[in-house]
């Protein structure tokens, strides 16, 4: 049993006891029955009124509870709708009071969540407005009085983060562009003219609007300044080239050039003005020294004629070159011609340099070919022979490659120009083929000469018995060399080729000469010391005597001269 039911039963028991006690009192007093009845009605009325009043209060509490419950439910549904949250589900089997308490607690939590979101929204809106003022962008599309959802707040946070990144990027870009703009303006000696330029250069960086249009305008301004600077540099460079030309042509002293050297480096406005003034001064001076200037230009023209490989007819086609009437018109014609030649050379510089490279390689190749046929090359030291051979082999490989590349460039040049590419009046490719053909003919000629010389030497060896020995080879004369006999005609006599008194050998040239009359050989036990090219020992005394005897015979009686034979 509940405690409330026990208390209710005790209340009923107390009421009965009180009525019994009143009845006893009334009995003792002797109150008549009608008065007892009246008094009992009074007790009943008091008790009933008290209970009714209590019931009424509880009923009123119930009504207020029901009303509060309905109000909380309505507010909870509204908050859930605003916060975009699911509606709170009521628990089954709980009392009305507990239900009202649960709903009221949930409503209080929702109210706090709403206040938190609205506070975040307000802060984000303020940040967004500041960023919009700086970036000149459109505010984020959200009403300030609406309750944002969590997703909306996350998106708003991300938007603010992106805007901050964009602000940092634009500010960095603005700072970089501003520095370059200020630098270019200083180089150009230019002051801000428009209001935009003044805002960029003079105003504080934080107060500048970093809109896309302003950044684009900054880039456009920078491009204009760059173009202006490039134009100034081009004009300065053109003036410098003109000044250098005129200095060389007019033979301006070095002191004057050095005094003007500060304007030959930088390209600011004051430098440009100084260069223009100097050009004007030199032009006036040029007119006063027109003959010397024309002669100087003619020297330049001759240099470019050589660089462009112009033929004699092409050179003579420029008739003003040979004129002696030195006037301003003649000077203008020479100026135009040198400019045309320079432009022509620059347009086809790769081709002309390729032709020059081929000629240099060809001359070097011919030099190496000539060295390759020189017998004295074997006596050098330091490995030059191997280096020259390797270089010659490399040239044999590189020359066809250069010719192939030049052929493609010449074909392109001829298609563009509509005429043949000539070097000194001759088609270059034809000239190359002729050089190779001449080289081949020369090689055949040298080969034929060597063959004839060898055949002639062989005949002389067979006729005079000349022995061929290598000068660098040592031979000990203590061992006798077996004699070789050779039949001549029908004769059966043999000529000894061993060591004899009639032999005179050159120590350094490797040449052996014999006397026309045969002499008996020396005895085998008498050896002859042979002197090598690097040796220092004197010849044997008996050998000197033999040589004197041979010399006397050669001077006195021999009608034939001994011919030297070079070792192969």
UniProtKB/TrEMBL annotation:
InterPro entries: MAP65_Ase1_PRC1
GO biological process, one term: mitotic spindle midzone assembly
Region of interest called Disordered, as start-end residue ranges on this chain: 477-502, 514-568
Signal peptide, first to last residue: none
One annotated Gene Ontology cellular component of this protein: mitotic spindle midzone
Keywords of the record: Coiled coil
One Pfam family from the record: MAP65_ASE1
Superkingdom of this protein's organism: Eukaryota
GO molecular function: microtubule binding
Coiled coil residues, start to end: 104-131, 265-292, 431-461
Biased composition (Low complexity): 492-502
Protein name in the entry: Protein regulator of cytokinesis 1b isoform X6
Provenance organism: Pundamilia nyererei
